[in-house]
Amino acid sequence: MRPGQRAADGGVRDPGVREPARPAGRAGIELPGRRESEAQRREVFARKTCRFHDGGPVTREDLTALLAPRPADSFGRELGLLGFPELGRVLRWFGQFHSEERLLPKYAYASPGAPNATQLYLETGGLDGPAAGLH
C-alpha cells in the first residue's frame, strides 16, 4: 500500500513506522520514554506548520546572517554522562505523537509529511545498555 492510501476498510495505514518484528537473531532494547511526557506533548502540538510566508524578499545578507556560526548552547556535557533513561527521553522526540483530533500523527521535527518515513540511525559506544555500533 502506498503512503497515505486508504485501506479496504476505509482506515488510513501508518506506513511511516516499521512493523515491530525484529530480524532473526537480533536483540531489541526497551528504552525509557516509549510514551511521551506531558511537556513533550504540549510542545509538539504547539508547533505549527507555516506553508505561506508574507514577508518581504530574502536578501543575500539575510541568508548569510542565518547561516553564520553561532556560539554553542551552554547546556552540554560529556557523552559518558548521558544515562540510559535520558537517551530514551531524547530519542522519544523522534517518535510519533498522536491526537484524537488528527487523522495522521504529528512529529516534533519538520518531516516530509506524516505518511512519509524518516529513518534515524544511532551510533552508540560507551553507553550502559546498547552494544557499541550502528543501530
Describe the structure.
With 135 residues, the protein is an all-alpha fold. The chain has a domain at 81-135. Helix content is 19%, strand content 3%. It contains three helices and two strands; from the N terminus they run αααββ. It has helices at residues 38-46, 60-67, 84-92, and strands spanning 123-124, 133-134. Strands 1-2 form a two-stranded antiparallel sheet. A hairpin with an 8-residue loop joins strand 1 and strand 2. The two termini are 26 Å apart. Residues 1-5 have low confidence and may be disordered.
Order of helices and strands: HHHEE
Uncertain segments are: 1-5
How many angstroms separate the termini? 26 Å
What's the total helix number?
3
Q: Major sheet: size, sense and barrel closure? A: 2 strands, antiparallel
Major sheet: arrangement of strands: 1-2
Q: In what range is the share of β-strand residues?
A: under 5%
Helical residue percent? 10-25%
Count the strands?
2
- Overall geometry comes to extended
What radius of gyration results from the CA coordinates? 19 Å
Note the quaternary state here: single chain
Query: Structural class, from helix and strand content?
Result: mainly alpha
Mean pLDDT: 76
